[in-house]
Amino acid sequence: MANKKPYVTYVLIAIQVVLFLAMQVMGGSESALTLILFGAKFNPLIAAGEYWRLITPIFLHIGWMHLLINTITLYYLGSMVEEIIGRWKYLAIYLASGIMGNLFSYQFSDNVSAGASTALFGLFAVFLALRNLYPSNRYIQNLGSQYMMLIGMNLVFGFLGSGIDIWGHIGGIVGGFLITMTLMKGEGHDDRKTQRIGSLAVYLIIAIFILLNQGTVNAIMP
């Protein structure tokens, strides 16, 4: 797969850039009303049944710097993950991570939010799962250790900083880890059916619990 172009990553980048430009034209990407119009995470509307808002925030960004940082990260990190695990598994993990990140944000944060970082943290978590699945692969073990440190540093900065949806990041990590454990077989001849089904079940249980609990819906329409 080393010679294949990361086409899924290119498409993901193109989508978020096009949507960002559209938001700029329609009122600005830093306008709460414009963000909500384009599908940002907004708790009252999700509680009212607009569950598609758990997906659309993955592709929306708030300001040029937010877009730039996440696009650069997606290009390098996404290309690496796409090459290692394949296009469709990569896409599934990216979307599932973003959804879980937005579910956590829905549950624990009232703020209007958007950004690819929920999915990007899921891609970080891919290497934690691969580290567990391929214990004899030194390359994967080294990558896993590096990304474990990177995740820890980013979470610390997230807790200390302001304007960062830390719960979205944590949810992305949880989602990315669980779906990677679901999709990847790992080493050996055992196909890990029980563990893979269990990982998927945990993902679904968390998602259903949050939706039934209806998150925190105290946000006020801006």
Automatic annotation (TrEMBL):
<dbReference type="GO" id="GO:0006508">
    <property type="term" value="P:proteolysis"/>
</dbReference>
<dbReference type="InterPro" id="IPR022764">
    <property type="entry name" value="Peptidase_S54_rhomboid_dom"/>
</dbReference>
<keyword id="KW-0378">Hydrolase</keyword>
<feature type="transmembrane region" description="Helical">
    <location>
        <begin position="90"/>
        <end position="108"/>
    </location>
</feature>
<keyword id="KW-0472">Membrane</keyword>
<feature type="transmembrane region" description="Helical">
    <location>
        <begin position="58"/>
        <end position="78"/>
    </location>
</feature>
<keyword id="KW-0645">Protease</keyword>
<dbReference type="InterPro" id="IPR050925">
    <property type="entry name" value="Rhomboid_protease_S54"/>
</dbReference>
<protein>
    <submittedName>
        <fullName>Rhomboid family intramembrane serine protease</fullName>
    </submittedName>
</protein>
<dbReference type="GO" id="GO:0004252">
    <property type="term" value="F:serine-type endopeptidase activity"/>
</dbReference>
<feature type="transmembrane region" description="Helical">
    <location>
        <begin position="200"/>
        <end position="221"/>
    </location>
</feature>
<dbReference type="Pfam" id="PF01694">
    <property type="entry name" value="Rhomboid"/>
</dbReference>
<feature type="transmembrane region" description="Helical">
    <location>
        <begin position="114"/>
        <end position="134"/>
    </location>
</feature>
<dbReference type="GO" id="GO:0016020">
    <property type="term" value="C:membrane"/>
</dbReference>
<dbReference type="InterPro" id="IPR035952">
    <property type="entry name" value="Rhomboid-like_sf"/>
</dbReference>
<keyword id="KW-1133">Transmembrane helix</keyword>
<keyword id="KW-0812">Transmembrane</keyword>
<comment type="similarity">
    <text>Belongs to the peptidase S54 family.</text>
</comment>
<feature type="domain" description="Peptidase S54 rhomboid">
    <location>
        <begin position="49"/>
        <end position="185"/>
    </location>
</feature>
